[in-house]
Amino acid sequence: MGMSAEEEHALSPRDEEWPEAEKAEKLARGAALKWASGVFYRPEKLEGLGQYQSREMQRNNSIQSRLKSTVQSYLEGVSAGLEQLRSAAQEVQSVCQDLGAARWALLDSADHFQGLQQMRALMVEHVQLASVVQVLPQLFSVQEVFSHTLHLLNGQHLLEAHAELMMMEHLRDDILSQLHLRGLSSAQTTVLSYFGGLQELNESLAKQLWDIVGNSLRLVREDPVLFVTAVRIIEREEKIDDTLLLEATFLPPGRPKNWKQKFYQVLRETITGARFHATSVDAEGHGLARHLATLQKDIVSELRVVKDLMVQCVPAHYNILNICTITYHQALTSHLQDILQEDLDKQALFLLLEWALHVYHSPDMMSHPDLLPEVDVSALGPLMSPELVDQTERKYVVKVKASMLEWLQRTLEVEFKEWFREEEPETDHQGFFQSALPVIVMQMLSENIRVASLITDSLQQKVYTMALEELEAFLGRFREALVQCGKEHQKDRAVPKYYVSYLLAMLNNNLALSSSVSSLHPNIACREIPMSLQAALDRTQKKTCQLLLEELLLDLQPLCLQLPSHKWLLGSQLVNSICEVINKYTKDFSHVRKPIFMLLLTESELLVASQYLRALMQKKMVCKNKEERVQLCDRLLQDATQLRELFCGLGLDGSQQSLEAVFALRELICLKDPALLSLEVLGFITKYPDISDEHISTLLDLRGDVSKEVRHMVLEMMAQHPQVLPESYRPIFSTILVPTPELPFCLRKGKCA
Question: What pTM did the predictor assign?
Answer without folding.
Answer: 0.72
